[in-house]
Amino acid sequence: MADVLEIRPQESAEENAQQMTDGFHLVIDALKANDIDTIFGLVGIPITDLARLAQAEGMRFIGFRHEQHAGNAAAIAGYMTQKPGICLTVSAPGFLNGLTALANATTNCFPMILISGSSEREIVDLQQGDYEEMDQLNAAKPYAKAAYRVLHAEDIGIGVARAIRAAVSGRPGGVYLDLPAKLLSQTIDAVKAKQSLVRVIDAAPRQLPAPDSVKRAIDLLKGAKRPLVLLGKGAAYSQADKEIRAFIEKTGIPYLPMSMAKGLLPDTHEQSASAARSFVLAESDVVVLVGARLNWLLSHGKGKTWGNPKKFVQIDISPQEMDSNVAIAAPLVGDIGSCVAALVDQVGDDFPQPPKEWLDAVSEKKNKNLEKMAATLAKNPTPMNFHSALRVLRDIVKQNPDINVVNEGANTLDYARAIIDMYQPRKRFDSGTWGVMGIGMGFAIGAAVTSGKPVLAIEGDSAFGFSGMELETICRYELPVCTVIFNNNGVYRGTDVNPTGGKDVAPTVFVKDARYDKMIEAFGGIGYNVTTPEELEKALKEAIASGKPTLINAVIDEAAGTESGRLTNLNPQSAAMKK
């Protein structure tokens, strides 16, 4: 027995070696300990080995061609799951490429964590000229909800835990986690390393509204003559679908979804006021904001858009959001699910339904606008325009209600969100609060990877240009993404000319008759070039049925389109020129 228990020096050394781990493995272990199984990123010094090891440890690594799109994919994954999406980049330029996506995530309240390798602190602080030297932590702080740096391997577990909690608690947002190269190669006793890991418990705890704030909101609604519920993407993120439906249907109040809230209730629901948007915003007297902010997308809650004086009930997890633009008569601070559930509890049999005059007025305006839109969509001009092409996409989405829809562009975005009905929540992803272009392929990849469902990416030809190289990523991972490009030869349209008559084309004009479908064919995907609604319908059905990477170059009238979409107030010089 003594001989069996005897440990020879060589065996002891081997055993000790096996009991050590390093920063690379510890980062992966910390993520896995919190049920994070996917990383979006782009490899390079010093994080290539981290990506390799993550894959070897069973995590999924989705490699991109540009860090911004990896960050967008991580952000939309966070929005869909309520878990922070992870984006991994190299230092300095790679970090800066990811920073745009991080800032966009923070602005839109998408939980994501940007993890970047970086130069050593002692070299950065003395500005000694290291490879890709940059003070990334301080660069990230203005654009992130929180930013942390880990210098010692034993702190990796707590650093990841803090980043996760910061990303998803309260108002979600983007978090930056800085990992200097030296940290990753640091070694630590395996037992101590395991003990240093932190599994985050109740990362986003419920925040119940105060009872008196609930009563105040209910009293205000009881006295409303023309009430309206306005759903923002925060309502969709909350996953309080049952509570929101119960509140709307029990109260009988018309509701208006912002674009990424479409599908919380089907857009065809009888209480939907989407087709009467301008009317209900102007004529309502009490508006319940559910996860929606009174920013530029809602004209800051004032001006001609809002017409008659009104009072607001606002549900938001951040008390600082209240009174940001106009006075909020009944603020409800708390998580959306808890706040809406508390309202539902107070809506009894004696709760007054909206006056018939208001419901009839909304219905009349809605039906009138729907009839006008139907007449426009029924036209079949040659060449196609936005409406005739979007009619086809509308019908395809109706036939495939679980498909994910990504949408960006100027006119392509404006028209699509008004024409295409959504039937399920968290299925529509677009330019959001910042109105940025370039989210298309990143969101499409993130949605496909996260949901495992098909994606229909509806892109303006200009918007597609920001992320088009990610077609290779889509093909490499064989993702079921069908990209439809509305090709009218330019930004807004392709008809502008150089006023000098010179050789250079006008600033808004692209190569005439570009064949974007050939791009995806170069990577092994399937391309279509269509010029009629019939051809577009056939291509779409084949693309979705195939489940393969596809791209449809939808040629539309190059004269179709207006400056800045239909947001002419954001382009005053152009608007003035048209007067």
TrEMBL record:
> What CDD domains does this protein's entry cite?
TPP_BZL_OCoD_HPCL, TPP_PYR_POX_like
Q: Which positions fall inside the Thiamine pyrophosphate enzyme N-terminal TPP-binding domain?
A: 23-137
- Output the InterPro entries linked to this UniProt entry: DHS-like_NAD/FAD-binding_dom (IPR029035), HACL1-like (IPR045025), Oxalyl-CoA_decarboxylase (IPR017660), THDP-binding (IPR029061), Thiamin_PyroP_enz_cen_dom (IPR012000), Thiamin_PyroP_enz_TPP-bd_dom (IPR012001), TPP_enzyme_TPP-bd (IPR011766)
Q: From what superkingdom does this record's organism come?
A: Bacteria
**Record-annotated Thiamine pyrophosphate enzyme central domain positions:** 214-343
Q: Does the keyword Nucleotide-binding apply?
A: yes
* Thiamine pyrophosphate enzyme TPP-binding domain location: 412-553
Name by which UniProt lists this protein: Oxalyl-CoA decarboxylase
